[in-house]
Structures are given as structure tokens and as C-alpha cells.
């Protein structure tokens, strides 16, 4: 008995040509309804599965979406990966996960994506030079920046509306009586941190108040160490706005270590609404990024572009939701 069933076996059982079998499994190929039914019935009986790799050699495209991610230690991004995997699976696509060790995507990461003939690419928390991004456009591979933007709007991006979120958080803290506030940023070259700060700063300035900015790196350790350094300076603010939740949890643990009461002595607000933020040990007030809607926007765009590539450039922004808990 043969260990591997191939298209020739299916064709023989179905009573059709091998090329007819191939046409059934190639999107857009013309084949009669009767032939399709015969081929699929034979394939099911034999347990045949088409060779996706062989198909990709002919079409120069696979059913693979490349997803590039750096911050796997931030719980927000594994959650994003899970959502993308489930969403693309519904349409028959698999995820090729590429973990980059640098803030900017490296040449070997690009080569991996191109070598696999990916159908589309999603870039999450990494940056990319314009020249590198253009290599995808040259190959007509649709590209989306997720939760990030390039400095120039040459490519499609999907983000939370960080500017309006920063404004709303500032208004909330001021209404709560906070005057001397602090903003702990993530990596300063990221559009997300820049826009959150811009919106926050805009409202604080309008109220003739000031805030201090402290730079960190979007990690728990970064938030923890930054908060300890602030307290060592005896510069404890009345409120912290922290650029993401995982840093905010680090800030809270640093405050606990110094026996600072939250929210009685200082308020803390994060950003993302990761699962840990609702844990009883934290109950962090935060801004929820609408991951489901952001993923939906990304998937819809990529599916359309993979059918008819246009290279459309647009910055899509999705409104998030303020989540009030016990840290404010």
C-alpha cells in the first residue's frame, strides 16, 4: 500500500485528468461543478491533501502570513499573536512567527519572510526603515504596521487612537485632583509612546500644569527601576501615567517596596488592559486597546490586498476604552 497519496491517485479514482485535480485546488482556476464534486469525493476517500509547498512554487505565494514581533515578554503581544492566528486560520492561512532581537528589523528577518514567499506581512512592535519596507512593495507583498506607524505614512497601519487616549487620561487625572504628574514612556522612537505623550502633554499644558517625563523600555523591569529612581530623588508625583501595563505593574511593585499607598498617596494608570492588570494584586486602572477590532481591520485589509494588490497607504485608528479600577 502506498504511504503517500498524490494527485495522480485522486485523478484515477475520480476518472478525471491530473490537471483537473490541480485546478480544483488552485484558487481562481476554472473547473466544472461536476468535476469538482468528483475530485473532492475521491480526495476524501483516499485521504488526499494537496501539497502546499508545491503549489507555492507555481503561484509564487503561500497561504502563510509573516508576523514579526520583538516584545514577547510583554503579555500584550502574545495576546495579539493568538488573535491573529485564530483570525487567519478561519481563512485558511497559517502564521510564520519571526522574532526579531532588535528594535529595527534585520536583513535576515526580511530574507526569512521573502524566502517563504509569504502572502502578507504584519509588523508589530519592531521598526523598519523605509528602504526595507519598499522591498515588500517591490514584490507586491501587502504589509501592515500593527500598533506602530512609520514616520512617513507610506504604508498601511492599524493603531489604537493613542492621541485621544493620552488626552482622556490627562483629563481624568486632573479631574481627580492630580497636579504634579509623571509620564513614563516606552522606547522613545516608537509612535505609540510619542502619541500617548503628545495627547497627555497637550491637555496638561492647557490646564497650566506641568509633568515630568521619564524614559523607560516597555518592560516590567524598566517600570520597576524607573519608579525606584524617581523615589530616590524624592520626587514622588501625585500620579503616574505609564505607557503600557507591564511597566505600570513594575511601578506598582516598586511603590509597594517603599510602602507607598496606591491610590491614597499616588495614582497609577497603565495602557493596554493586559490580563494581569485585572489581577487582585494589582487591579490597575488602564486604557484598553481594542485588539479584536484592530486585528479585524488588519486581516480585512490583507485579505483584500492579497487578491488585488494596490499598495494602499492609510493610517487606521481605532478608539479604545478607559477601564477604571482601584489604582486611581
UniProtKB/TrEMBL annotation:
SMART domains to which the protein is assigned, alphabetical: HTH_LACI
Pfam families found in the cross-reference section: LacI, Peripla_BP_4
Highest classification ranks of the organism: Bacteria, Bacillati, Bacillota, Bacilli, Bacillales
Name of the molecule in the record: HTH lacI-type domain-containing protein
CDD domains: HTH_LacI, PBP1_LacI-like
InterPro entries reported for this sequence: HTH_LacI, Lambda_DNA-bd_dom_sf, Peripla_BP_I, SBP_2_dom
Domain HTH lacI-type: 5-59
Alphabetical UniProt keywords: DNA-binding, Repressor, Transcription, Transcription regulation
